[in-house]
Design brief:
This protein is of the alpha/beta class. It has a domain of 153 residues: 3-Layer(aba) Sandwich (Rossmann fold). Helix content is 41%, strand content 24%. It is built from ten helices and ten strands. The strands form two sheets. It has a six-stranded mixed beta sheet with strand order 6-7-8-3-9-10, sandwiched between helices. It has a four-stranded antiparallel beta sheet with strand order 2-1-4-5, with helices on one face. Helix 7 links the parallel strand 7 and strand 8. Helix 3 crosses helix 5, helix 3 packs parallel to helix 6 and helix 5 crosses helix 6. The mean pLDDT is 90.
Length: 246
């Protein structure tokens, strides 16, 4: 589903990423770990289209998307959450989730609005049902009418997750998904991630969450891949332990 080939990113004389290569097969939950400054968020920016690499390629579902804008990638199914939560503060929780589907339009345009077109009503009902499904999945049903700005940081992160899932992503990028969450929310997001059939790439510092949730790990240090393998293999790797786990 995801192929990163020899990706490098340079900021002046500083190389944030250096010849990073790895693949994520369909349906796998893959974690990217490493110390602060390892290049993890820069890698996410490249994969999601927010930053073009200095060299190398990114392919999603076999298609080279290296030069494809972030908006196009999002509409093609590459969805992302951010290290610093990005929600629409003035909108309710439910409307935040609904925005993920609104880009598709309502069908029929203004005449359909004026005429109360049956297809439009069906589409609105289906989207409303999907919103409620995502709210329940992420434990947000009781907060559906609450403005997102009024929520604590951890709950806003759950809103962002619900929105990212609403339009059925083919590739989901989660940037520190447990940051700011309490123990119950962390357990819920672990259950959500394990229950999805979507291909997931996540960056996370909570190693208990990573080891329990991910099927495969890629370890970055100073912009380079220093190890790749199962959580058990990574946990035993002396190079990883010296650079990060130790």
């Amino acid at each position: 589903m995801l192929s990163v080939r020899a990706v490098s990113v340079a900021f002046g004389g500083v190389r944030a990423l250096a010849d990073v290569s790895f693949e994520v097969p369909p349906g796998q939950v893959c974690g990217v770990i490493g110390p602060n400054g390892a290049g993890k968020t820069t890698l996410f920016d490249v994969i999601s289209g927010l930053r073009r690499p200095t060299s190398g390629t990114v392919a999603v579902a076999g298609r080279d998307v290296t030069g494809t804008p972030a908006l196009r990638r999002a509409r093609d199914g590459v969805r992302r959450t951010f290290q610093r939560t990005q929600v629409f503060g003035r909108l309710s929780v439910a409307d935040n989730v609904l925005t993920a589907m609104e880009w598709r339009g309502g069908g029929g345009g203004l005449p359909a609005d004026l005429a109360g077109w049956r297809g439009r009503r069906r589409l609105e009902r289906e989207r409303g049902e999907r919103v409620e499904e995502m709210l329940e999945l992420c434990g947000l049903t009781a907060l559906r009418a609450t403005p997102a700005a009024a929520l604590p940081a951890g709950t806003r992160r759950m809103v962002e997750l619900a929105r990212a899932l609403a339009d059925a992503p083919s590739l989901l990028l989660l940037d520190e998904p447990t940051s700011g969450l309490d123990a119950d929310q962390t357990a819920r997001i672990a259950d959500v991630v394990r229950g999805l059939e979507t291909t997931i790439l996540l960056v996370e510092h909570d190693m208990a969450f990573v080891m329990d949730t991910c099927e495969h790990l890629v370890v970055l240090d100073l912009g380079r891949v220093i190890a790749s393998g199962t959580p058990a293999e990574i946990g035993r790797d002396p190079v990883v332990r010296a650079a990060y786990l130790g």
